Amino acid sequence: MTFNFFNVRKLYTKTALYKNVQLTKDRFPNLKRGSYAKVDSTDVEFFKSLVGVNNFITGEEVKSYNEDWLKSISGFSKYVLKPKTTEQVSSILKYCYKRGIAVCIQGGNTGLVGGSIPVFDEVILSTSAMNKIISFNKISGVLVCQAGCVLENLMNYVQNEGFIIPFDLGAKGTCQIGGNLATNAGGLRLIKYGSLQGSVLGLQAVLADGQVLDCLNTLKKDNTGYHLKHLFIGSEGTLGVITKIAIQCPNTPKFVNVSFIGLESFDKVLSFFSLVRKEFSSSLSSFELMDSVAIKSVQKNIGIKCPINDDLNFYVLVELSADNNYINHSIQEFLEKVLVEEIILDATVADQPSLIQNLWKIRENIPESLLRYGYVYKYDITLPHEFFYKIVPDIRKRLEKLDVKAVCGYGHLGDGNLHLNVATIEQNDEIASAIEPYVYEWTSDYKGSISAEHGIGFLKSKYLKYSKTNLEIDLMKKIKNNIDPKKILNPYKIFPQDDIN
To answer: Is there a contact between 338 and 266 (Cβ–Cβ < 8 Å)?
Structure first.
């Protein structure tokens, strides 16, 4: 079963909040363009002849490719190339490598850290025209597809065959599977199906010099040395362009149940989580936390009413999925018990698709509801469960004298992924300085990760040191320099500026 989560691309186009977007080079004046070649008329003619006029984008249409959906990053690329095949990608990169032209790799452009946006005038290589499903094996459950396939389309395709894609994202209507791999996206059901790396059996990628690395394995077991596919999962387009993917898909669970529960404290949330995981370990597929600020934002700005008491401090959405119907009866008994024990204060349960979707809409509309205030500082971090929410009241106190509309925390408690959001009327340097680098220092002090799902991209590059040791960063640089010595792939991403040029 899949759910109709919000489409982030539609989100910012219908919410006209950011009219004047400052160029990244102006916002960060100390940033320097690398010594890359500038595209000339000869290059333009080559690109047109290779991908065709219809897949060579220039002029006003390029603007949307130059901005992220939060409107926090803005480049000034003049050209977008939309290859349809691995061979075309290979030809593009071989040419750019020889000429020294920088290339920005872009999928669905739904990231939050500027990883798929040009910083200066890099040529944009969009994978959106590479959207073919190549094969699906009903016996093994292995899907092979091109990198530009939209996640929701893949979900619908395998669902018709009795299977599911083993992860789900709020941006599924826009995000592309290649971008999901490039950022190692986690999503809503990691607690049951594990990380994306574990579900990807193989991939095909084009290196900076145009060589095609074919690791498109469809076997579950292949113990033959280095698993090179892992270099590209989470590499954010800095090592190569992923063009094809093989994914292991599990069978669709026959029964799904969703509960929406209210609690008075985070300690109660942790107690409830431990009990749920112990009672429903094999069928627990999502455990989402939302604080009262997030719920009130959805009610006020979107108009979706909370289905239970709306005056509580915390809410959780629990999804169970299984091949037998015991979960519906068991969850009712379980909730009655914890209600009597005052671990929870209120709850409602749904096992029909339309009712399930209504409960999910509350969680899925939190990001849009916060954007309605004007601007949102978004932080995607991982923390140990016991410290999962501790940073939220800390940030509230830190910002209490500034013009902030809302500070809230929500996210995937099951895997420790907190979405910390600070909503304001507009972008403000004083507020930004009060949050960063404090939020990353805090996360590091509590042994967390500064990026749970969206990667490092451009915006977090100078904070990489808070999650990686010097040795780890040094090894990452060596890999980058060996595979892409001219550094033409997604420059200015992951590594600080001084480490790239």
So the answer is: no
Amino acid at 324: N
Contacts 24+ apart (CB under 8 A), 479-486: 479/231, 479/239, 480/238, 480/239, 483/207, 483/208, 483/231, 483/239, 483/240, 484/207, 484/208, 484/238, 484/239, 484/240, 485/208, 486/97, 486/100, 486/208
pLDDT digits (tens, 9 = 90+) for 402-430: 999 999 999 999 999 999 999 999 989 99
pTM for this entry: 0.90
Decide whether 5-126 matches 255-446 in CATH topology. Answer: no
Q: What is the CATH code of the structural domain delimited by 5-126?
A: 3.30.43.10
With b for 16 or more beta-carbon neighbours within 10 A and e for fewer, the 448-479 pattern comes to bbbbbbbbbbbbbbbbbebbbeeeebeebeee
Complete edge-to-edge strand list for the sheet that includes strand 314-322: 346-350, 255-263, 314-322, 284-291, 406-412, 417-424, 375-382
Burial class (CB in 10 A: 0-12, 13-18, 19+), 100: middle
What percent of the chain has pLDDT above 90? 83
Look at strands 200-206 and 241-248 and give their pairing: antiparallel
Check whether 90 has a pLDDT greater than 60.
yes
* Chain segment 447-476, per-residue pLDDT in tens: 999 999 889 999 999 999 999 999 999 999
Give me 480's structure tokens. 């980058």
Backbone torsions φ then ψ of 348, nearest 5 degrees: -140, 150
Q: What is the C-alpha separation between 208 and 21, in angstroms, rounded?
A: 31
Q: Contact, 162 vs 251, CB < 8 A?
A: yes
Instruction: Specify the amino acid at residue 270.
Output: L
**Adjacency order of strands within the sheet including 103-106:** 56-57, 80-81, 123-126, 103-106
Q: 255-446 has which CATH code?
A: 3.30.70.2190
H or E segment to which residue 250 belongs: none
3-state secondary structure of 244: strand
C-alpha separations of 47 from 43, 62, 147, 441 in Å = 6, 15, 20, 44
Fold annotation for 133-248: 3.30.465
> 2 pLDDT exceeds 60?
no
- pLDDT tens-place string over residues 245-269: 999 999 999 999 999 999 999 999 9
Tokens of 321: 């999925």
285: Cβ–Cβ under 8 A, 6 or more apart, which residues? 189, 191, 192, 193, 253, 319, 320, 321
Domain ranges, ordered by start, for the chain? 5-126, 133-248, 255-446
Residue 178: C-alpha distances to residues 91, 106, 149, 197, 380 (Å): 19, 9, 8, 12, 20
* Sequential DSSP letters for 48-76: HHHH-GGGEE-GGGGGGGGB-TTS--B--
